[in-house]
Amino acid sequence: MERVDMLTIKHASDADWPEIIELDARAFALPSPLPRDEITEFRAKVPDEATYLIRDVGTVPGSSTIVAFSLYYDLPLTVPGGAVVDAAALSWVSVSATHRRRGMLRRMIDAQYADWRARGHPLAILTASEGTIYERFGFGPAAFAHRVHIAPAASTFRSPAPPDSHVRYGTPDEVAAHVPVVHARWAAARNGAIGRPAPWWPSLLADRSFRRNSQTSGLHYLLHPDGYAAYRIDARDRTALIEDFVAVTPQAHDDLWRVLTSLDLISSVHASIPVDDALPHLLTDARAVGVVDRPDTLWVSILDVAAALELRTYSDDGTLVLEVGDDYSDRAGRYRLQVVDGRASVTPTDDAPNASMDIAVLSSLYLGGIAAREFAEARRIDVDSPASLTRLARLFDVEHAPFAGTFF
Ligand SMILES: CC(=O)SCCNC(=O)CCNC(=O)[C@H](O)C(C)(C)COP(=O)(O)OP(=O)(O)OC[C@H]1O[C@@H](n2cnc3c(N)ncnc32)[C@H](O)[C@@H]1OP(=O)(O)O
Protein backbone atom coordinates (compact mmCIF):
# COMPACT_ATOMS: atom_id res chain seq x y z
CA MET A 1 0.00 0.00 0.00
CA GLU A 2 1.23 3.51 -0.78
CA ARG A 3 2.41 5.39 2.35
CA VAL A 4 0.71 8.62 3.25
CA ASP A 5 3.05 11.52 2.64
CA MET A 6 1.67 14.18 4.94
CA LEU A 7 4.76 16.32 4.40
CA THR A 8 3.94 17.13 0.79
CA ILE A 9 2.23 20.46 0.48
CA LYS A 10 0.84 21.42 -2.90
CA HIS A 11 -0.88 24.42 -4.41
CA ALA A 12 -4.50 23.96 -5.45
CA SER A 13 -5.46 23.31 -9.06
CA ASP A 14 -8.87 23.53 -10.76
CA ALA A 15 -9.79 19.92 -9.95
CA ASP A 16 -9.14 20.43 -6.21
CA TRP A 17 -11.64 23.23 -5.62
CA PRO A 18 -14.90 21.29 -5.09
CA GLU A 19 -13.13 19.24 -2.38
CA ILE A 20 -11.55 22.35 -0.83
CA ILE A 21 -14.95 24.00 -0.55
CA GLU A 22 -16.37 20.85 1.09
CA LEU A 23 -13.48 20.75 3.60
CA ASP A 24 -13.85 24.40 4.55
CA ALA A 25 -17.65 24.24 4.63
CA ARG A 26 -17.34 21.47 7.22
CA ALA A 27 -14.68 23.33 9.21
CA PHE A 28 -16.43 26.72 9.24
CA ALA A 29 -20.08 25.60 9.32
CA LEU A 30 -20.78 27.12 5.90
CA PRO A 31 -23.70 25.99 3.78
CA SER A 32 -22.59 23.50 1.16
CA PRO A 33 -22.46 23.45 -1.79
CA LEU A 34 -21.79 27.15 -2.20
CA PRO A 35 -23.31 28.87 -5.26
CA ARG A 36 -21.17 28.45 -8.37
CA ASP A 37 -20.83 32.24 -8.85
CA GLU A 38 -19.66 32.59 -5.26
CA ILE A 39 -16.89 30.05 -5.82
CA THR A 40 -15.84 31.73 -9.07
CA GLU A 41 -15.66 35.11 -7.34
CA PHE A 42 -13.84 33.62 -4.38
CA ARG A 43 -11.17 32.11 -6.63
CA ALA A 44 -10.67 35.48 -8.33
CA LYS A 45 -9.47 36.79 -4.95
CA VAL A 46 -6.55 34.40 -4.59
CA PRO A 47 -4.08 32.95 -7.11
CA ASP A 48 -3.54 29.20 -6.83
CA GLU A 49 0.14 29.86 -5.87
CA ALA A 50 -1.15 31.38 -2.62
CA THR A 51 -3.07 28.23 -1.68
CA TYR A 52 -1.65 25.27 0.27
CA LEU A 53 -3.15 21.81 0.60
CA ILE A 54 -2.20 18.43 1.98
CA ARG A 55 -3.65 15.20 0.60
CA ASP A 56 -3.93 11.88 2.40
CA VAL A 57 -3.14 9.39 -0.34
CA GLY A 58 -3.50 5.71 0.36
CA THR A 59 -4.18 5.50 4.12
CA VAL A 60 -7.49 4.05 3.03
CA PRO A 61 -6.61 1.89 0.00
CA GLY A 62 -7.47 3.65 -3.25
CA SER A 63 -8.47 6.93 -1.59
CA SER A 64 -7.01 10.39 -2.07
CA THR A 65 -8.50 13.06 0.17
CA ILE A 66 -7.62 16.68 0.87
CA VAL A 67 -7.20 16.83 4.64
CA ALA A 68 -5.75 20.32 5.15
CA PHE A 69 -6.01 23.64 3.36
CA SER A 70 -5.03 27.26 3.86
CA LEU A 71 -4.34 30.33 1.74
CA TYR A 72 -3.24 33.92 1.97
CA TYR A 73 -4.48 37.06 0.30
CA ASP A 74 -2.42 40.13 -0.47
CA LEU A 75 -4.31 42.80 1.45
CA PRO A 76 -3.53 46.49 1.95
CA LEU A 77 -3.31 47.41 5.64
CA THR A 78 -3.13 51.04 6.76
CA VAL A 79 -0.66 51.52 9.62
CA PRO A 80 -0.18 54.48 12.01
CA GLY A 81 0.84 57.53 10.00
CA GLY A 82 -1.06 56.43 6.87
CA ALA A 83 1.39 54.14 5.05
CA VAL A 84 -0.43 51.28 3.30
CA VAL A 85 1.42 47.99 3.78
CA ASP A 86 1.10 44.94 1.54
CA ALA A 87 0.19 42.38 4.20
CA ALA A 88 0.04 38.60 3.78
CA ALA A 89 -3.43 37.75 5.07
CA LEU A 90 -3.67 34.14 6.27
CA SER A 91 -7.15 32.69 5.90
CA TRP A 92 -9.32 29.63 5.24
CA VAL A 93 -7.16 27.47 7.50
CA SER A 94 -8.88 24.15 7.95
CA VAL A 95 -7.74 20.67 8.87
CA SER A 96 -10.15 17.78 8.57
CA ALA A 97 -11.61 16.59 11.88
CA THR A 98 -10.13 13.19 11.00
CA HIS A 99 -6.56 14.54 10.84
CA ARG A 100 -6.28 17.17 13.57
CA ARG A 101 -3.34 17.57 15.96
CA ARG A 102 -0.86 15.83 13.67
CA GLY A 103 1.02 18.99 12.76
CA MET A 104 -0.80 19.91 9.51
CA LEU A 105 -1.45 23.51 10.51
CA ARG A 106 2.17 23.92 11.54
CA ARG A 107 3.41 22.51 8.23
CA MET A 108 1.19 24.80 6.21
CA ILE A 109 2.22 27.87 8.20
CA ASP A 110 5.91 26.91 7.85
CA ALA A 111 5.46 26.81 4.06
CA GLN A 112 3.51 30.06 3.91
CA TYR A 113 5.89 31.83 6.26
CA ALA A 114 8.82 31.01 3.96
CA ASP A 115 6.85 32.32 0.96
CA TRP A 116 5.81 35.53 2.76
CA ARG A 117 9.41 36.23 3.67
CA ALA A 118 10.61 35.47 0.14
CA ARG A 119 8.01 37.87 -1.25
CA GLY A 120 9.06 40.62 1.14
CA HIS A 121 5.83 41.08 3.10
CA PRO A 122 6.71 43.10 6.22
CA LEU A 123 3.61 41.90 8.08
CA ALA A 124 1.24 38.95 8.17
CA ILE A 125 -2.31 39.34 9.42
CA LEU A 126 -5.27 37.07 10.23
CA THR A 127 -8.64 36.93 11.91
CA ALA A 128 -8.51 34.15 14.49
CA SER A 129 -11.17 31.52 15.16
CA GLU A 130 -9.71 30.87 18.62
CA GLY A 131 -7.42 32.89 20.88
CA THR A 132 -4.84 30.20 21.68
CA ILE A 133 -3.64 29.00 18.27
CA TYR A 134 -1.50 31.67 16.63
CA GLU A 135 0.75 33.23 19.29
CA ARG A 136 3.17 30.32 18.89
CA PHE A 137 3.80 31.54 15.31
CA GLY A 138 4.47 35.13 16.43
CA PHE A 139 0.98 36.61 15.96
CA GLY A 140 -0.57 38.89 18.55
CA PRO A 141 -4.08 40.41 18.75
CA ALA A 142 -3.70 43.95 17.42
CA ALA A 143 -7.12 45.49 16.71
CA PHE A 144 -10.43 45.24 18.51
CA ALA A 145 -14.04 46.33 18.01
CA HIS A 146 -16.98 47.12 20.24
CA ARG A 147 -20.04 45.04 19.44
CA VAL A 148 -22.89 47.30 20.45
CA HIS A 149 -26.65 47.06 20.84
CA ILE A 150 -28.20 50.48 20.41
CA ALA A 151 -31.62 51.34 21.78
CA PRO A 152 -33.28 53.63 19.20
CA ALA A 153 -35.82 54.95 21.73
CA ALA A 154 -32.98 56.25 23.94
CA SER A 155 -30.87 57.61 21.08
CA THR A 156 -31.47 61.35 21.23
CA PHE A 157 -28.75 63.41 19.60
CA ARG A 158 -27.46 66.41 21.54
CA SER A 159 -27.50 68.63 18.45
CA PRO A 160 -30.52 69.17 16.21
CA ALA A 161 -30.72 67.28 12.93
CA PRO A 162 -29.65 69.23 9.84
CA PRO A 163 -32.50 70.15 7.44
CA ASP A 164 -31.16 67.65 4.89
CA SER A 165 -28.52 65.06 5.79
CA HIS A 166 -28.00 63.97 2.17
CA VAL A 167 -28.52 60.32 3.20
CA ARG A 168 -30.49 58.28 0.64
CA TYR A 169 -31.21 54.61 0.00
CA GLY A 170 -29.15 53.51 -2.99
CA THR A 171 -30.21 51.55 -6.04
CA PRO A 172 -27.95 48.56 -6.88
CA ASP A 173 -26.22 50.62 -9.59
CA GLU A 174 -25.65 53.54 -7.23
CA VAL A 175 -24.33 51.20 -4.55
CA ALA A 176 -21.90 49.51 -6.98
CA ALA A 177 -20.60 52.90 -8.13
CA HIS A 178 -20.36 54.55 -4.71
CA VAL A 179 -19.50 51.98 -2.06
CA PRO A 180 -16.09 50.66 -3.25
CA VAL A 181 -14.85 54.21 -3.87
CA VAL A 182 -15.88 55.50 -0.45
CA HIS A 183 -14.52 52.39 1.26
CA ALA A 184 -11.13 52.99 -0.42
CA ARG A 185 -11.13 56.63 0.78
CA TRP A 186 -11.92 55.49 4.31
CA ALA A 187 -9.42 52.60 4.41
CA ALA A 188 -6.55 54.78 3.20
CA ALA A 189 -7.03 57.12 6.15
CA ARG A 190 -7.95 54.83 9.06
CA ASN A 191 -5.33 53.19 11.23
CA GLY A 192 -5.69 49.39 11.03
CA ALA A 193 -8.13 49.44 8.12
CA ILE A 194 -7.98 46.62 5.60
CA GLY A 195 -8.50 47.75 2.02
CA ARG A 196 -10.69 45.66 -0.26
CA PRO A 197 -9.13 44.94 -3.67
CA ALA A 198 -11.47 45.07 -6.69
CA PRO A 199 -12.11 41.26 -6.82
CA TRP A 200 -13.57 41.42 -3.29
CA TRP A 201 -16.58 43.52 -4.24
CA PRO A 202 -18.71 41.33 -6.58
CA SER A 203 -19.38 38.75 -3.86
CA LEU A 204 -19.99 41.38 -1.17
CA LEU A 205 -22.39 43.36 -3.35
CA ALA A 206 -24.19 40.24 -4.62
CA ASP A 207 -25.36 39.55 -1.05
CA ARG A 208 -26.37 35.98 -1.86
CA SER A 209 -29.11 34.37 0.19
CA PHE A 210 -26.79 31.87 1.91
CA ARG A 211 -25.46 34.82 3.94
CA ARG A 212 -28.75 35.19 5.84
CA ASN A 213 -31.59 33.10 7.21
CA SER A 214 -35.14 33.04 5.85
CA GLN A 215 -36.36 35.67 8.32
CA THR A 216 -33.63 38.21 7.56
CA SER A 217 -33.78 40.77 4.78
CA GLY A 218 -31.21 41.43 2.10
CA LEU A 219 -28.85 44.36 2.60
CA HIS A 220 -30.29 47.87 2.59
CA TYR A 221 -27.68 50.46 1.61
CA LEU A 222 -27.81 54.01 2.94
CA LEU A 223 -25.54 56.29 0.91
CA HIS A 224 -23.98 59.61 1.89
CA PRO A 225 -21.50 61.53 -0.30
CA ASP A 226 -18.80 60.69 2.27
CA GLY A 227 -19.99 57.38 3.64
CA TYR A 228 -22.43 54.50 3.54
CA ALA A 229 -24.05 51.92 5.78
CA ALA A 230 -25.38 48.46 4.88
CA TYR A 231 -27.87 46.76 7.19
CA ARG A 232 -30.35 43.88 7.34
CA ILE A 233 -33.58 43.58 9.27
CA ASP A 234 -34.15 40.44 11.29
CA ALA A 235 -37.94 40.11 11.21
CA ARG A 236 -38.04 37.73 14.20
CA ASP A 237 -37.13 40.38 16.76
CA ARG A 238 -37.11 43.51 14.58
CA THR A 239 -33.42 44.17 15.00
CA ALA A 240 -31.35 46.05 12.45
CA LEU A 241 -28.01 44.33 11.86
CA ILE A 242 -25.40 46.73 10.50
CA GLU A 243 -22.89 44.77 8.42
CA ASP A 244 -20.82 47.60 7.01
CA PHE A 245 -20.47 51.19 8.18
CA VAL A 246 -18.00 53.60 6.61
CA ALA A 247 -17.76 57.34 7.22
CA VAL A 248 -14.91 59.39 5.82
CA THR A 249 -16.01 62.59 7.61
CA PRO A 250 -17.56 63.27 11.05
CA GLN A 251 -20.58 64.74 9.23
CA ALA A 252 -21.18 61.51 7.30
CA HIS A 253 -20.76 59.53 10.56
CA ASP A 254 -23.36 61.63 12.36
CA ASP A 255 -25.81 61.80 9.45
CA LEU A 256 -25.75 58.05 8.87
CA TRP A 257 -26.16 57.25 12.57
CA ARG A 258 -29.11 59.64 12.84
CA VAL A 259 -30.93 57.60 10.20
CA LEU A 260 -29.85 54.23 11.61
CA THR A 261 -31.05 55.10 15.12
CA SER A 262 -34.43 56.32 13.88
CA LEU A 263 -35.49 53.36 11.71
CA ASP A 264 -39.20 52.81 12.16
CA LEU A 265 -40.39 49.85 14.28
CA ILE A 266 -36.87 48.68 15.09
CA SER A 267 -36.29 47.55 18.67
CA SER A 268 -32.50 47.37 18.62
CA VAL A 269 -29.63 48.22 16.27
CA HIS A 270 -26.62 45.87 16.35
CA ALA A 271 -23.26 47.03 15.05
CA SER A 272 -19.51 46.58 15.34
CA ILE A 273 -17.84 49.96 15.88
CA PRO A 274 -14.34 51.25 16.63
CA VAL A 275 -13.51 51.13 20.36
CA ASP A 276 -13.00 54.93 20.23
CA ASP A 277 -16.13 55.73 18.18
CA ALA A 278 -17.71 59.08 19.05
CA LEU A 279 -21.30 57.80 18.81
CA PRO A 280 -22.04 57.50 22.56
CA HIS A 281 -20.84 61.07 23.13
CA LEU A 282 -23.16 62.45 20.45
CA LEU A 283 -26.20 61.26 22.42
CA THR A 284 -27.85 62.75 25.50
CA ASP A 285 -27.75 59.26 27.05
CA ALA A 286 -24.47 57.50 26.26
CA ARG A 287 -25.94 54.30 27.75
CA ALA A 288 -28.11 53.98 24.66
CA VAL A 289 -25.00 52.43 23.08
CA GLY A 290 -24.51 49.24 25.10
CA VAL A 291 -21.23 47.39 24.59
CA VAL A 292 -21.95 43.64 24.58
CA ASP A 293 -18.56 42.35 23.43
CA ARG A 294 -15.04 43.50 22.63
CA PRO A 295 -13.61 40.88 20.24
CA ASP A 296 -10.17 40.97 18.70
CA THR A 297 -10.74 41.60 14.99
CA LEU A 298 -7.20 41.49 13.63
CA TRP A 299 -4.00 39.65 14.57
CA VAL A 300 -0.62 40.87 13.34
CA SER A 301 2.74 39.16 13.02
CA ILE A 302 5.72 41.36 12.22
CA LEU A 303 7.76 39.40 9.65
CA ASP A 304 10.56 41.92 9.17
CA VAL A 305 11.14 43.86 12.39
CA ALA A 306 13.23 46.72 10.99
CA ALA A 307 11.11 47.23 7.85
CA ALA A 308 7.81 47.11 9.75
CA LEU A 309 8.92 49.49 12.50
CA GLU A 310 10.16 51.98 9.88
CA LEU A 311 6.83 51.90 8.00
CA ARG A 312 4.70 53.38 10.78
CA THR A 313 5.06 56.77 12.43
CA TYR A 314 5.39 57.48 16.16
CA SER A 315 3.70 59.88 18.55
CA ASP A 316 6.92 61.08 20.17
CA ASP A 317 10.63 61.25 19.48
CA GLY A 318 13.27 59.24 21.33
CA THR A 319 15.54 56.22 21.23
CA LEU A 320 15.00 52.76 22.70
CA VAL A 321 16.83 49.47 22.41
CA LEU A 322 14.25 46.70 22.01
CA GLU A 323 15.09 43.08 22.67
CA VAL A 324 12.79 40.81 20.70
CA GLY A 325 12.33 37.10 21.42
CA ASP A 326 11.13 34.63 18.81
CA ASP A 327 10.74 30.88 19.43
CA TYR A 328 9.22 30.27 15.98
CA SER A 329 11.55 31.92 13.48
CA ASP A 330 14.60 34.15 13.18
CA ARG A 331 13.27 37.54 14.23
CA ALA A 332 14.95 37.52 17.65
CA GLY A 333 17.55 40.19 18.25
CA ARG A 334 18.29 43.64 19.60
CA TYR A 335 17.02 46.55 17.59
CA ARG A 336 17.80 50.24 18.16
CA LEU A 337 14.63 52.22 17.44
CA GLN A 338 15.52 55.86 16.89
CA VAL A 339 12.62 58.21 16.23
CA VAL A 340 13.10 61.74 14.91
CA ASP A 341 10.11 63.86 13.87
CA GLY A 342 7.91 60.80 14.29
CA ARG A 343 9.85 58.66 11.78
CA ALA A 344 11.97 55.71 12.84
CA SER A 345 15.25 54.27 11.78
CA VAL A 346 15.94 50.78 13.07
CA THR A 347 19.38 49.16 13.28
CA PRO A 348 20.78 46.03 14.95
CA THR A 349 22.74 46.66 18.14
CA ASP A 350 24.55 44.88 20.98
CA ASP A 351 23.69 47.58 23.54
CA ALA A 352 21.77 46.65 26.68
CA PRO A 353 18.01 46.61 26.04
CA ASN A 354 15.59 49.17 27.46
CA ALA A 355 12.58 46.91 26.82
CA SER A 356 12.36 43.16 26.14
CA MET A 357 9.37 41.32 24.71
CA ASP A 358 8.31 38.46 22.48
CA ILE A 359 7.67 39.12 18.77
CA ALA A 360 3.93 38.46 19.37
CA VAL A 361 3.85 41.28 21.94
CA LEU A 362 5.67 43.70 19.63
CA SER A 363 3.16 42.73 16.92
CA SER A 364 0.29 43.54 19.30
CA LEU A 365 1.83 46.95 20.04
CA TYR A 366 2.36 47.73 16.35
CA LEU A 367 -0.99 49.34 15.47
CA GLY A 368 -1.42 50.86 18.94
CA GLY A 369 -4.39 48.62 19.79
CA ILE A 370 -2.86 47.51 23.11
CA ALA A 371 -0.84 49.90 25.30
CA ALA A 372 2.70 48.94 26.36
CA ARG A 373 1.76 49.53 29.99
CA GLU A 374 -0.84 46.73 29.89
CA PHE A 375 1.77 44.21 28.76
CA ALA A 376 4.31 45.53 31.27
CA GLU A 377 1.80 45.03 34.12
CA ALA A 378 1.23 41.49 32.81
CA ARG A 379 5.06 41.03 32.91
CA ARG A 380 5.16 40.38 29.17
CA ILE A 381 7.36 43.45 28.61
CA ASP A 382 10.46 43.85 30.84
CA VAL A 383 11.91 47.36 31.08
CA ASP A 384 15.17 48.62 32.53
CA SER A 385 13.47 51.65 34.13
CA PRO A 386 10.07 53.34 34.51
CA ALA A 387 11.30 56.05 32.10
CA SER A 388 11.83 53.44 29.37
CA LEU A 389 8.25 52.21 29.78
CA THR A 390 6.95 55.78 29.56
CA ARG A 391 8.99 56.35 26.38
CA LEU A 392 7.82 53.06 24.85
CA ALA A 393 4.18 53.86 25.67
CA ARG A 394 4.42 57.39 24.24
CA LEU A 395 6.18 56.28 21.06
CA PHE A 396 3.59 53.62 20.18
CA ASP A 397 0.56 55.71 21.20
CA VAL A 398 -1.84 56.41 18.30
CA GLU A 399 -4.38 59.09 17.46
CA HIS A 400 -7.10 56.59 16.48
CA ALA A 401 -7.51 53.06 17.75
CA PRO A 402 -6.97 50.56 14.93
CA PHE A 403 -10.18 49.33 13.26
CA ALA A 404 -9.99 46.65 10.58
CA GLY A 405 -13.54 46.87 9.21
CA THR A 406 -13.23 43.71 7.08
CA PHE A 407 -13.43 40.08 8.15
CA PHE A 408 -11.45 37.69 5.96
C1 LIG B 1 -6.67 32.33 10.14
C2 LIG B 1 -7.77 31.29 10.14
O1 LIG B 1 -8.15 30.77 9.13
S1 LIG B 1 -8.47 30.90 11.66
C3 LIG B 1 -9.36 29.41 11.35
C4 LIG B 1 -8.71 28.19 11.92
N1 LIG B 1 -9.54 27.05 11.56
C5 LIG B 1 -10.55 26.57 12.33
O2 LIG B 1 -10.81 27.05 13.44
C6 LIG B 1 -11.36 25.44 11.72
C7 LIG B 1 -11.47 24.25 12.65
N2 LIG B 1 -10.17 23.80 13.20
C8 LIG B 1 -9.19 23.25 12.43
O3 LIG B 1 -9.33 23.12 11.22
C9 LIG B 1 -7.93 22.76 13.12
O4 LIG B 1 -8.26 22.27 14.38
C10 LIG B 1 -6.85 23.86 13.27
C11 LIG B 1 -6.52 24.49 11.93
C12 LIG B 1 -7.30 24.96 14.23
C13 LIG B 1 -5.57 23.23 13.86
O5 LIG B 1 -5.02 22.32 12.93
P1 LIG B 1 -4.08 21.11 13.38
O6 LIG B 1 -3.50 20.49 12.17
O7 LIG B 1 -4.82 20.22 14.31
O8 LIG B 1 -2.94 21.88 14.20
P2 LIG B 1 -1.45 21.31 14.45
O9 LIG B 1 -1.54 19.86 14.80
O10 LIG B 1 -0.56 21.68 13.32
O11 LIG B 1 -1.06 22.15 15.71
C14 LIG B 1 -0.05 23.14 15.70
C15 LIG B 1 0.06 23.69 17.09
O12 LIG B 1 -1.15 24.41 17.40
C16 LIG B 1 -1.77 23.85 18.55
N3 LIG B 1 -3.21 23.93 18.32
C17 LIG B 1 -3.88 23.48 17.24
N4 LIG B 1 -5.19 23.74 17.36
C18 LIG B 1 -5.34 24.37 18.54
C19 LIG B 1 -6.46 24.89 19.22
N5 LIG B 1 -7.71 24.80 18.70
N6 LIG B 1 -6.27 25.49 20.40
C20 LIG B 1 -5.01 25.59 20.92
N7 LIG B 1 -3.90 25.11 20.31
C21 LIG B 1 -4.07 24.50 19.13
C22 LIG B 1 -1.26 22.45 18.64
O13 LIG B 1 -1.31 21.99 19.97
C23 LIG B 1 0.17 22.60 18.13
O14 LIG B 1 0.98 23.13 19.15
P3 LIG B 1 2.59 22.87 19.15
O15 LIG B 1 3.03 22.60 17.74
O16 LIG B 1 3.14 24.15 19.69
O17 LIG B 1 2.81 21.71 20.04
UniProtKB/TrEMBL annotation:
Annotated signal sequence range? none
Q: InterPro entries in the record, alphabetically?
A: Acetyltransf_17, Acetyltransferase_Eis, Acyl_CoA_acyltransferase, Eis_dom, GNAT_dom, NAcTrfase_Eis, SCP2_sterol-bd_dom_sf
According to the UniProt entry, its GO molecular function terms are: aminoglycoside N-acetyltransferase activity
Q: Which domain of life is it from?
A: Bacteria
Q: Which UniProt keywords apply?
A: Acyltransferase, Host cytoplasmic vesicle, Transferase
Where does the record place the catalytic residues? Y134, F408
Q: Which GO terms describe its biological process?
A: aminoglycoside antibiotic catabolic process
Entries under PROSITE patterns matching the protein = GNAT (PS51186)
Cite the Gene3D superfamilies for this sequence: 3.40.630.30, SCP2 sterol-binding domain
The UniProt record gives the binding positions of acetyl-CoA as: V93, S94, V95, R101, R102, G103, M104, L105, R106, S129, E130
Specify the N-acetyltransferase domain's residue ranges. 7-174
- The residues forming a coiled coil are none
Q: Which NCBIfam families match?
A: PRK01346.1-4 (NF002367)
HAMAP family given for it? Eis (MF_01812)
Q: Which PANTHER family match?
A: N-ACETYLTRANSFERASE EIS (PTHR37817:SF1)
**Subunit record text:** Homohexamer; trimer of dimers.
Q: Which family does it belong to?
A: Belongs to the acetyltransferase Eis family.
Q: What is this protein called?
A: Putative acetyltransferase
**Organism lineage:** Bacteria, Bacillati, Actinomycetota, Actinomycetes, Mycobacteriales
